[in-house]
Amino acid sequence: MAVSAIRIMCPNLRCRAVLAVPAEARGRMVRCRSCGTSIKVPAKQEIKAAVEPDPAAADPPTDA
User: Fold this and answer.
1) Tens digits of per-residue pLDDT, 17-36?
2) Domain residue limits, the chain
3) Nearest-angstrom CA–CA distance, 44 and 32
4) Are 17 and 10 in contact (CB under 8 A)?
5) CA dihedral 25, 39, 19, 11 (to 10 degrees)
6) 5 with 20: CB under 8 angstroms?
7) Phi then psi dihedrals of residue 7, to 5 deg
8) What is the pTM of this model?
9) b vs e for 20-46, b when ≥16 Cβ sit within 10 Å of the residue's Cβ?
10) What is the sign, positive or negative, of the torsion defined by CA atoms of 19, 24, 26, 29?
11) How many C-beta neighbours within 10 Å does residue 2 have?
12) Taking a C-beta distance cutoff of 8 angstroms, is the pair 37, 11 a contact?
């Protein structure tokens, strides 16, 4: 069985290494092996919220 991995980029502007972390690490802190920066792996809900726009925000206000 293949283990699914999540790819994240180190937020350190001097590093920017791409890390492959296991899916079980969602919501946890991991450490970049290149520079040692601590990175929070996004939870599944955070990713979904970032991708799906808010439908209420898309409706323009109406003047009555």
Assistant:
1) 999 999 999 999 999 999 99
2) 26-52
3) 20
4) yes
5) 150
6) yes
7) -100, 125
8) 0.58
9) eeeeebbeeebebeeeeeebebeeeee
10) negative
11) 4
12) yes
